[in-house]
Amino acid sequence: MFKLDLMDFSNMFSFWTFSLCQAFIVWTPVKGQSEVIGSSQPIIASPGDDVILPCHLSPEMDVQELTVEWSKPDLKPDPLAYVHLYRHRREDLDMKIPAYIRRTEMFVDQLEHGNISLKIMNVTLADEGKYRCLVPKLKSRVQSAVVQLVVEMPLHPRNLQTSDPTDETDVKGVRANRIAVISSVVVFCIVLIAIICAYLFKQRCQNPNHPKYDEVHASSTPLPA
Fold first, then answer.
1. Separation CA 72–CA 219 (nearest Å)
2. What are the pLDDT digits (tens) for 121-131?
3. pLDDT band, residue 162 (cuts 50/70/90)
4. What pLDDT, on a 0 to 100 scale, did the predictor assign at position 74?
5. Lateral strand order in the sheet of 82-87
6. Average pLDDT, the chain
């Protein structure tokens, strides 16, 4: 009876040892096995930007002959449509979401190095959300990664730069020159108008038909003795 219990214990010990070894093998990454790695931080963009959703294989692996799927898991009503689908060494447009047509691209020349990042051009507010990068035929326990895209309206105008004091001096100099030129033109116009008015007044006074001509002429004629 003691021998039977000892044998049962031995068999159970062997069974559990084998199970633990199998579990350890399954959950331990194989040396050299590539995994899909995304960004642990959200990618921030503004409407109109071109943005890159980073994703790559580590260790580096050539995926030119494999299928790469970029999708939006939370997208409704058709979650099976793709943001970008690469297979047979080219982009497949058959199942592409219409809103992303001609707005996405992958770095095809970098696929041999395991770079499967996606570029989205002219980002809109509707593009915000989670994006999943999947290599379905990759012989790895980690075939996909999720990248979060956040689209925010800018608080300040883009390309706002601190002005250079030299630039401000130049602007002030230009303004001063403009004011001086305008002032000179105004003074010249006033003088010209004054000269023209004086000339017309003189001509008018010398005109014999002018009512005041006789008075002026009479006053200038000497009285008879």
1. 105
2. 999 999 999 99
3. very low
4. 85
5. 43-45, 144-151, 129-134, 68-71, 82-87, 90-91
6. 78
Per-residue 3-state assignment (H helix, E strand, C coil) for the chain: CHHHHHHHHHHHHHHHHHHHHHHHHHHCCCCCCCEEEECCCCEEECCCCCEEECEEEECCCCCCCCCEEEECCCCCCCCCCEEEEEECCEECCCCECHHHCCCEEECHHHHHHCECCEEECCCCHHHCEEEEEECCCCCCCCCEEEEEEEECCCCCCCCCCCCCHHHHHHHHHHHHHHHHHHHHHHHHHHHHHHHHHHHHHHHHHHCCCCHHHHHHHHHHCCCCC
Query: Higher pLDDT residue, 45 or 217?
Result: 45
Looking up tokens 């309206």 gives 153
Neighbours of 151 (CB within 10 A): 19
Least confident piece of the model among 88-102, 162-176, 179-193: 162-176
